Amino acid sequence: MKTFPTSAVWCLGILFISVSLITTGSSEVQVVGPADRVVAVAGDDVILPCSLKPSVNAEDMTVEWTRLSLKAENVHLYRQDRDSNEDQFPSYKGRTSLFNEELKKGNVSLKLTRVTLSDAGSYRCFIPTLTSQVKETTVQLLVGAVSQPVISIVGTKGWGVVLKCESGGWFPEPEMEWLDSSRTILPADGPPERHRDSGLYAVRRHVTVDQTDTNNFTCRVHQLEINHLKETEIHVPDDVFPKSQEVMIVGLLAGAVGVLAASIGVYMLIKHMKDDVFPKSQVGLIVGLLIAAVGVIAAGVYMLRKHIEEKKRKKLDEGLPQLTYWLIVGLPIAAVGVLAAGVYMLIKHIEEKKRRKDLEEKEMEYREQVKENRLDAQFVTRNKVHLIQNVTMVIPIAFYLIHSEMYCKIRAARNSQDQMGLLYEAFNSRREKVKSDFYRILLDLEPHVVKDLGGYYDYIGRSYDNIYGLQGELKKLRKENEEVTRERGRSYDCIYGLQGELKKLRKENDELKEKLRKAEETIQSLSTSPDGQQKTQTPSQKSEGIEGMEMESLPGRKSGPGPGRKSAPEMKPLLAAGPQKDDLDELERGARVTTELNYVL
Fold it and tell me: Helix (H, G, I), strand (E, B), or coil: what is residue 411?
């Protein structure tokens, strides 16, 4: 059997004792408490933290909790694995306990239930069975009291409603403030009223609120030391506010002013879009301001009258702060608003007009540049053969225009014709701008080559000048066309009047034609023979026959009976039956007039 030497055993023993001493010194058990004080609210349960560090089993240890005051009060005692509260202070009976399951982990915290204000103070956690120097720790307990605030409506004041908020049973002393629906602090009617009874604080505060969109208001009470806050919200009905219909009227008038300003703005915008100007904008602004002023003054007068009636009925002594505010502030604000809208729109109009003009000028310049480039490129393309044969300074031109391997090929070509051919090949893969640059360089270096082509480009330039001149003439012609259109409308009115006169003339013409037809029938009947045979006579013969008949019918006229003639007595009945000379002359004149009218028509 082998045995260890005695020296080895001694060495191992000394090493074990050293390690044990080092470990015990470095892990000394201490009592640890919280760094901050513990805050609790009366009626709640609270835990006073206390533990062992490092964590060791405390089930076999003695734990003493006492309250430090003028005379120490036994709060809780744990020893011999059980609670021993025979000497416990009466006020803590049945309200203290340890966490038995946590003792094995070194947690010796005390749970205190149904905390009261008298429980506030310093508590000592003491473990006498420890061999270390730190056997105890102190825990500060702050006990506060809170209550829910109560809001009530006191009455009316001026144009608002007075609200009261009360909250008692607070400790320490709290702060109170009023909030509106947007969580904004409202100015209260004076400082809060405070008083203390039985160690607790009560606070009260009033506020006068005006009617809002929601009519929701909040009373907030908070205590920073115990970090507690209580809020109560109230909704004030609309009918509680005095002069609610007057406020509504003011709101409607304000809306009317807004609609008026918007109408003026829309009117000016429509005129701007239609005529590109703002005609009579100053008149519109002035009219708008006058209407707004009349509306606000009428509302003020109406509200004043209603307030006087209400004052007589309720015997109120409040003033008219809101009325003064609406009359003094409302009208200038409305006027400034409308003026600002007009000035803003005018400025925007000027800026927009200037911007459009700049854009039109830039667009015109761009179009002109594109046209020039296109014409230059067409010139270079159309006169390709001539330019290849006559341009000699190809290398300087290619140096400026070509920045690729093609320049090396052009430079290596044998003569200028080959160089120009390669240059034209390079033009095919580039935009019109390159050809235009070539044309302008050619004008500087070899202008005679361009002049030999007949001055085509000069003619195009003059044509552009003519076009620009014709644009101005076109505008004038458009204005003249509008005037002609108006004149044409007036001419149509005259034509419609002349149509009636034309109808009358046509009717008279038809009547004259009818008279002429009857006259021709009468003449035809005169030229008919007695046996019923009609003689064929020329108009001159008819005239001679009529004249002869007239001569024979005169008194004292004698003529012998010749062949084909009748005696005077026999002719008289015939002449008496037919038309006389005056009638024939009148018919002939009517025929001539009818002929002339037919020619005119």
Answer: helix
Is residue 338 classed exposed, middle or buried when 0-12, 13-18 and 19+ CB atoms within 10 A define those classes? buried
Whole-angstrom CA distances from 156 to 273, 311, 446 are 53, 13, 99
347-404 confidence digits (pLDDT tens) = 777 888 888 888 888 888 888 888 888 888 888 888 888 888 888 888 888 888 887 7
Q: Which residues contact 235 (CB under 8 A, 6 or more apart)?
A: 214, 215, 216
Query: For 171-203, how does the pLDDT look when each residue is reduced to its tens digit (9 = 90+)?
Result: 999 999 999 999 999 999 999 999 998 889 999
Residue 221 buriedness (CB in 10 A; 0-12 / 13-18 / 19+): buried
Backbone Cα Rg of the chain: 63
How many CB atoms are located within 10 Å of the residue 300 CB? 21
For strand 63-68 and strand 38-41, is the pairing parallel, antiparallel, or unpaired?
unpaired
d(CA 550, CA 571): 10
Give the whole-angstrom CA distance, residue 487 versus residue 481: 10
First to last CA, the chain: 167
Residue 133, classed as helix, strand or coil, is coil
Helix or strand (DSSP H, E) at 76: strand 73-79
pTM reported for the whole predicted model: 0.39
For the four alpha carbons of 116, 118, 121 and 126, in that order, the dihedral sign comes to negative
Distance CA 323, CA 299 (A): 9
pLDDT of residue 124: 95
Q: Is the dihedral of CA 240, 244, 245, 248 positive or negative?
A: negative
528: which strand partners? 534
Closest by CA to 107, choosing from 145, 78, 85, is: 78
Alpha helices in 429-532 (DSSP H): 432-445, 447-451, 456-526
Q: How far apart are CA 75 and CA 67, in angstroms?
A: 7
Residue length of the chain: 601
